[in-house]
Amino acid sequence: MNFRKIKLALTVDLINGIQNGQLLKSIKNLMNEFKEAGKFIGLSVTNSMTLNKALTQRTFAIQYENVTLDLNVITNTATRSQYVQNFNLR
Fold it and tell me: 3-89: which CATH architecture?
């Protein structure tokens, strides 16, 4: 599996900007384009913590047949803005 190709596509998509509120859906749709990832299995929150009154950090595991995408997302609870802190394919 070509992880570099998937990481590059995710990075470009994140740099170009994903509309707020559609972050997970957009990333899932992008991952569905990669046939080598396999079929979508599920999405789960693996970690969640409050950073301060306005910010929450969550780690999502987006699972496919052949790969799992771990995604750390910072959410501003006041504005509902979401930012990807980092991601990892395994």
Answer: Roll (3.10)
